[in-house]
């Protein structure tokens, strides 16, 4: 994402894992490819670039959602006020 946005890697901030954090997600599309002949329309890179561009062009949609509470490095530690 930083490469797409032409931003430096120094912007990365490593934070502690959240409670219940999943170590990784492993996907395998071989069954749907074999049994149904499915294939992706776009490469991962193409789809990621399209997604980043959508967010760049639709700031009106996501900007109101980017509150301090959401941007906190460990929001689960803030407690629930609702």
UniProtKB/TrEMBL annotation:
List each copy of the NAD(P)-binding domain by range: 11-50
Q: This protein's superkingdom?
A: Archaea
Q: What name has this protein been given in UniProt? A: dTDP-glucose 4,6-dehydratase
């Amino acid at each position: 994402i930083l490469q797409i946005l032409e931003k430096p890697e120094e912007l990365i901030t490593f934070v502690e894992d959240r409670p219940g954090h999943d170590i990784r997600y492993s996907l395998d599309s071989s069954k749907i490819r074999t049994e149904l002949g499915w294939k992706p329309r776009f490469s991962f890179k193409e789809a990621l670039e399209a997604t980043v561009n959508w967010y760049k062009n639709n700031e009106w949609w996501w900007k109101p959602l980017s509150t301090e509470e959401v941007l906190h490095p460990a929001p689960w530690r803030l407690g629930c006020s609702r």
